[in-house]
Amino acid sequence: MHELSIILNIIEIAEQEAKNAGAASISCIELDIGSLSTIEPAAFDFAWKQGVRNSMLEQAKLVTNYIPGRGRCNYCQTVFKLKALYDPCPQCGEFLAEVIEGKELKIKSIRIEEKQTT
Amino acid sequence: MCVTCGCSSHHTHSTDDHHHHHHGQGHSHSHSNGNHGVQDKLINLEKDVLHENALLAQRNRGYFDAKNILALNLVSSPGSGKTMLLECTLRDLKEELSFYVIEGDQQTSLDADRIKATGTKAVQINTGKGCHLDAHMVLHAIQDLKPEENSILFIENVGNLVCPSMFDLGENQRVVIMSVTEGDDKPIKYPDMFHTSEVCIINKTDLLPYVPFDVDRAIENAKKINPKLQFFQISCTTGEGLDGWYDWLKQQTTELKSA
């Protein structure tokens, strides 16, 4: 269940950025999560609800973009969809794919509500 | 408060130094429809969630490089024989090589005690509810251990084939251990760990006559995920195959020195 520690990292980064920008709260957070990144969506959503309690993200809308895996065969250079790390190249059948997409674990953006200055 | 890195706990590293400077690039607008002038602003971050861990891992790596230390991250499911492999290695090679060990477990110092009994300096990290070691924990363990130049540092990760795969500790190489009682389909069930490792040790080969484990199939499965994996088949009970592992360790330290 590493999802929770990943979420705590996300909260830490998002809160720091929001505070630096003078935010009162975070209304939305958008994440890029690769489908080969070992994050299990159900476990992630479950842990998210617990993890964001009493944080600036408690009320934030969570937008998660799950990025499908793509690999490039190191043997014949074919680029193909990788559902699992052990998918063979559909062109030559080799298991030498280099993952080019699907390992992402990134905060894409946050939407903040700024403190009123007037 | 930690003097070296300024942290107060595992999750309070300041990210101030590493902004991606997208601030102000996001569009800003005010809501007029009932939001009473609250400024709503989008901040594009494009920030890697494990960025902080990656930085600390590189810092550890720099320390290892400077001191010519071979750091090996040992990963496996619980009960595959990581600690026993270390006990054998330390006992058999301690006259020839210099070793240090970082032990990671959720609770107890039982493993570190076993290592210390071999006469090797060891530090125990208890992760509590955490399911993996991270670069920050290792950084502090190195401060305790103070490994000497030209030594080998074994980092025995928490027994878990999933989570530790995501966390770079700054190791030179990752060694995944599976035992023949676990099933030869383990690599494809837990592909990430095999994908990120350089070496795969198949342990408890003395039990092969009693279990349906097919070594060739296990290797074939692991190679589907990572064709570059190097394999050792060993039994810590009988000592079979350990020579190959020991030769590899000696060769790695020699290569480090000449690099």
List keywords for this structure.
A: 118 residues, alpha+beta, 3-stranded mixed sheet, 3-stranded antiparallel sheet, 2 helices, 6 strands, B: 259 residues, Rossmann fold, 7-stranded parallel sheet, two-stranded antiparallel ribbon, 8 helices
Explain how this protein is built:
The complex is a heterodimer of chains A (118) and B (259). Helices cover 25% and strands 36% of the residues of chain A. The N and C termini of chain A lie far apart (45 Å). The longest helix of chain A has 18 residues, at 3-20. In chain A, a hairpin with a 5-residue loop joins strand 3 (69-73) and strand 4 (79-82). The mean pLDDT of chain A is 93. By secondary structure, chain A is an alpha+beta fold. Chain A is elongated, with a radius of gyration of 18 Å. Chain A contains two helices and six strands. Chain A has a domain at 3-68 and 103-114: hypothetical protein PF0899 fold, CATH 3.30.2320. A seven-stranded parallel beta sheet of chain B has the order 5-4-6-3-7-8-9, sandwiched between helices. Chain B contains eight helices and nine strands. The longest helix of chain B is centred in the last third of the chain and has 17 residues, at 242-258. Chain B has 259 residues and is α/β, with parallel strands linked by helices. In chain B, helix 7 (215-225) links the parallel strand 8 (199-203) and strand 9. Chain B has helices at residues 51-66, 82-93, 110-116, 135-145, 186-189, 191-195, 215-225, 242-258; strands at 28-30, 39-48, 70-76, 99-105, 121-126, 152-156, 173-179, 199-203, 230-233. The two termini of chain B are 37 Å apart. Chain B has one domain (52-258): P-loop containing nucleotide triphosphate hydrolases (Rossmann fold). In chain B, helix 1 runs parallel beside helix 4 (135-145). Classes of the chains: A alpha+beta (118), B alpha/beta (259).
